[in-house]
Amino acid sequence: MSAPRIVTESLGGGSLSRAVQDGLVPAEWCRARPSGVAAWTAHAEAVRAEFSSRRWLAALRPAFAASGTAADRLERVATENGIVVTTGQQPGLFGGPFYTVLKAFSALALADRIERDTGIPTAPVFWAATDDADFAEASWTAVAEKGTVRRLSIARQGPDGLVMAEMPLGNTAAQLEQLLAAAGSAPHAGIFDALRAAYAPDATVGSAYVRFMRSILEPHGIAVLDAWHPATRAAARPTLIHALRRAAAVDEAIGLRGVAIERAGFRAQVARVPKLSLVFRGLAGVKERIPMSQALAVAESADSVLSANVLLRPIVERGILPTIAYVGGPGEIAYFAQVGAVAEALGVPAPLAVPRWGATVVEPNIDRRLGRLGMVLDDIRAPHDAERRLGDRAVPAEIRTDLEALRENLARRLDSLRDVSAALHHLVPERVIEGARHQLLHRVDRLERRLRAAARARETDAVDDLAAVRAALLPEGQRQERRLNPVPMFARHGDLLLAQLKAGAAMHAGMLVGA
User: Fold this and answer.
1) How far apart are CA 467 and CA 474, in angstroms?
2) Domain map of the chain by residue range?
3) Is the pLDDT of residue 324 over 70?
4) DSSP for 93-120?
5) How many CA atoms does the CB half-sphere of 90 hold within 13 Å?
6) Can you point out the beta strands (E) in 161-312?
7) What is the DSSP letter of 55?
8) Pick from 30, 96, 185, 427: CA 20 to 30 A from residue 21's CA?
9) CA 506 to chain centre
């Protein structure tokens, strides 16, 4: 089978995210990305100094439950006082969208590059956010099949607000078969064995996600940390207690930073919720934000199950892991402008965020369809442009010529009528003739659209090609990486695709470290 084509894309994001990525925000908002090997080395040494005890892995080893290459790399980093590059994502059905894997390989590539250039042992870590309670996000994934985008979803089996680590999964056999069907005659179908093992009926949404992610990431040296594991919660607890005791100061800092962001012409990524701290407590697995009025009391309670909200999580992570950088998507990069304010209020080092690699996979079948259409990827990005081009191509030359002649004749005759009317002391007001011009040309435009649509409908092969291309490269009008599950692509292309993704992520990492 021919190799897919990988198209590197700008990460994009909103105006605040792009400004953070480009270093165009005030220095106090977030930690600036080091520029050059010397700066990265200095940053790495500062992180190492904070974790000189080297006991962090002993505390977190049960939450990693790492094996093989991933375990060996973690152990080496902990033993030699090394550092880690982190990334993460909340659970998504069958591993979630493609960008989850892009995040993981971006972290791997950055860890490899930092270790190579600085000589400091570095390991990639994937933070599986099983403490997340957003079932709507975790309950579905999407595949491209026969020119359409099909959403696969599961029904809720537990109460609203239940963390995904506790949310029962239920039977996913039917959804797995739909995923398998979308892969077609895939020569590398072993990945489905890993899915079936992970997504067993007695699993939870979170545990299935963790097991599957470990099966695909650990062989590449990427360890997966379960965020809801008791070992992770225990390690995070001191930071969470500190955040509760400083809840008022943290809230004030978030409010002031939000004002600064808005005055700079941006919009804060995470809305401030008055009277609520950044810490959740869990009651039988159901999360609720702790009111600021109860923060001190909860901080003194030894039996509270605590977890962090999105603005506090990077600080918790930085507190329990020797993290040199977090590899994030556009939304995450944007909210780090607020994370910096939280870190300052807590008196702890601000974590560093760097952008992940963005990419689209153009499989050989889709590339052939693009070739038959005479188009490239950019041609299908703008809504309706590709359809318009297809219709233009399908309309016979004689019809296009006649339509153009009709417009020219109308314009010439109407100009003549206007001049004659003016010579007769404005027999009718000029606006009457111009109104008729507008109506007649509008009718010609409608006629042309109907002719183009009818001609396009007769080009069934081209219509099918365009539908397949859109479903594969721009599903539901969104970038491929944000919608499609990558499992069918991995099943079709196996190690070849993995090697291409790792190579693309390595180039991105080189730019991050060397710039």
Assistant:
1) 10
2) 5-240+303-356+485-514, 365-475
3) yes
4) GGG-SHHHHHHHHHHHHHHHHHHHHH--
5) 17
6) 223-226, 276-283, 286-291, 305-308
7) -
8) 96
9) 19
- Alpha-carbon distance of 497 to 216, in angstroms, equals 13
Q: Which of 272, 281, 319, 274 is nearest to 300 (CA)?
A: 281
**Residue whose token pair is 């379960």:** 226
Question: For residue 84, what are its two tokens?
Answer: 């880690």
Alpha helices in 323-382 (DSSP H): 330-346, 364-373
Cα–Cα distance measured from residue 222 to residue 3, given in angstroms and rounded to the nearest whole number: 25
For residue 94, what are the contacts with CB-CB under 8 A and spacing of at least 6? 141, 152, 175, 176, 179, 195, 199, 212, 485, 487
- CA distance to 116, 165, 279, per residue, from 393 (Å): 53, 53, 59
31 DSSP 8-state letter: P
Whole-angstrom distance, CA of residue 281 vs CA of residue 312: 14
Tell me the Cα Rg of the chain: 28
Give the strand pairing for 83-89 and 286-291: unpaired
- β partners of residue 484: 142
Q: What is the C-alpha to C-alpha distance for residues 459 and 462, in angstroms, rounded to an integer?
A: 5
What's the full length of the chain, in residues? 515
Cross-strand partners of 128? 89, 226
Closest by Cα among 71, 324, 89 to 222: 71
379: DSSP letter: G
> Which of 46, 56, 121, 32 lies closest to 84, judged by CA?
121
pLDDT band at 515 (very low <50, low <70, confident <90, very high): low
Mean pLDDT for the chain? 93
CA dist 479 to 41, 79, 389, 459, Å?
A: 35, 41, 21, 26
Indicate the SS3 state at residue 296. Answer: helix
Rounded-to-integer distance, Cα 363 and Cα 324, Å: 35
The tally of CA atoms less than 13 A away on the side-chain side of residue 274 is 0
Tokens of 254: 């978030």
Percent helix, strand, coil in the chain, to 5, is: 60, 15, 30
**CA 202 to CA 167: how far, in whole Å?**
11
Residue 240, helix vs strand vs coil? helix
| pLDDT of res. 323 | 97
Q: Which amino acid is at 133?
A: A
pLDDT tens string 148-165 = 999 999 999 999 999 999
**Both tokens of residue 503?**
């190579």
Count of other CB atoms within 10 angstroms of residue 271:
8
